[in-house]
Design brief:
about 425 residues, alpha/beta, four-stranded mixed sheet
């Protein structure tokens, strides 16, 4: 579907949906534990359903209700075929998890994930004893294990999700392992993984820089009974839009969260009294490094579009292998609003327009492009038409409804 949207001002209370990133990690834990786990405050989005289907194919017993998920898992997978859908996190957690076992497994994928390279995890797992074949470094993937614990060094990780996958798998091996990272990226996401694993009884020793991990083998997952945090990735967009032209009360966020996109708070003024409050304010030129928080980039683009001067965002190479080439596609689409862009190595310079233009924006089936573009014209007279607006279902199916409740004028145009 296509959606036409205009937002003179945002006003009201917004409650953050549950974090799919955290939920996927909890499901991956629960499906490997023979005792029953319970997860409340659930994110019912496409990626979450993908991980639930993986758990079902694994052999877990799953009981769903509107507010919670109960899962009784198994120590070993009952299927040789899995589908990661369009979820990179599901894929990258599952590859090392399956490599633990003496068997042959195939992981299929769909949509944009078929065009996202697997990365260095293949060579790492082969070094540990796995036999892995791919379609020219892309899914589908065939894995023959088992791997054995080893001291491994990773020179140039392209995503922290591969590290998270190893941290999920290595504690369950018979042998001890060590991981050395020679480049650090997306550290908050690794902290989130460590936190989730700790709650399931897994012990991993890491140095302060999170560049070295010592992992004892022969560990087992314990059942979890936990509530999923609110999603800071979605919240960052509303913080940005509220700072441009809003008066929003934001609920259901953990101020102590490890989620990386909490970094949006470095760039706006806000109040916190058991919940967050953000109002219209002057937006100065942004200086930001997204090496450790690439998913905050869409929210920063909203701020840059309305800033009083040129902004610079570094670490932009982290954007290339997302649902789209997010760097190229944001430049292509946000140029339509009148912004001017220039690249200098790993740095992107954004000069805001004097007046934001109305535009037709192609989401490129990327949920974050669709959501950022929807909020980009807030407080202006411009309106935007977004194609393939259903792409938000990947992470936030109720986005359009929630936005309308805050004062957005939305018209659905069927294709």
């Amino acid at each position: 579907m296509n959606i036409k949207i205009k937002i003179p001002h945002l006003q009201g209370i917004w409650e953050a949906p549950a974090s799919k990133s955290e939920l996927i990690r909890y499901i991956a834990i629960a499906m490997q534990c023979e005792e029953e786990s319970e997860i409340t405050h659930v994110s019912w989005c496409n990626d979450s359903y993908t991980m639930l289907k993986i758990a079902e194919d694994w052999g877990a017993d799953i009981f769903l209700s509107e507010e919670k998920i109960r899962i009784r898992g198994r120590k070993e997978p009952q299927s040789q075929l899995f589908n990661a859908g369009e979820s990179a996190l599901c894929l990258r957690l599952l590859i090392p998890i399956l490599a633990k076992y003496n068997g042959t497994f195939k992981i299929e994928a769909e949509g944009s994930l078929l065009h996202r390279p697997i990365g260095e995890i293949i060579s790492v797992l082969q070094e540990m004893g796995a036999n892995i074949t791919t379609q020219n470094q892309f899914p589908p993937i065939t894995i023959k294990g088992p791997i054995k614990g080893k001291h491994i060094s990773i020179e140039h990780p392209i995503t922290s999700q591969n590290i998270s996958g190893l941290l999920f798998a290595l504690p369950l091996l018979k042998e001890n392992s060590q991981i050395k990272l020679n480049k650090l990226i997306s550290l908050p996401y690794i902290q989130l993984t460590l936190s989730c694993l700790k709650q399931a009884g897994i012990t991993i020793e890491a140095n302060q820089q999170l560049s070295f991990y010592s992992i004892n083998g022969k560990q087992l997952f314990k059942p979890i009974n936990i509530s999923t945090e609110g999603d800071w990735s979605s919240a960052a967009l509303f913080f940005a839009a509220g700072a441009v032209s809003g008066n929003i009360e934001i609920k259901n966020l953990n101020p102590q969260s490890f989620q990386a996109d909490k970094a949006i708070l470095h760039h706006i003024a806000y109040q916190y009294k058991n919940r967050y409050f953000v109002n219209r304010q002057k937006i100065n030129g942004i200086e930001a490094d997204i090496t450790h928080c690439p998913d905050v980039f869409p929210a920063l683009m909203i701020l840059c579009l309305h800033a009083s001067s040129t902004s610079t965002i570094t670490g932009t190479n982290r954007l290339i292998y997302k649902e789209s080439n997010r760097l190229d596609k944001f430049i292509e689409e946000f140029s339509k609003f009148g912004a001017k862009f220039s690249l200098d190595g790993d740095s992107l310079h954004i000069r805001p327009p004097e007046n934001i233009l109305s535009a037709t924006i192609d989401s490129h089936n990327d949920h974050r492009i669709a959501m950022a573009a929807a909020l980009a014209t807030v407080g202006s007279t411009a309106q935007v038409l977004i194609t393939n607006a259903e792409s938000v279902n990947k992470s936030y199916p109720s986005f359009w409804e929630d936005l309308k409740c805050l004062g957005a004028k939305i018209e659905i145009i069927e294709k």
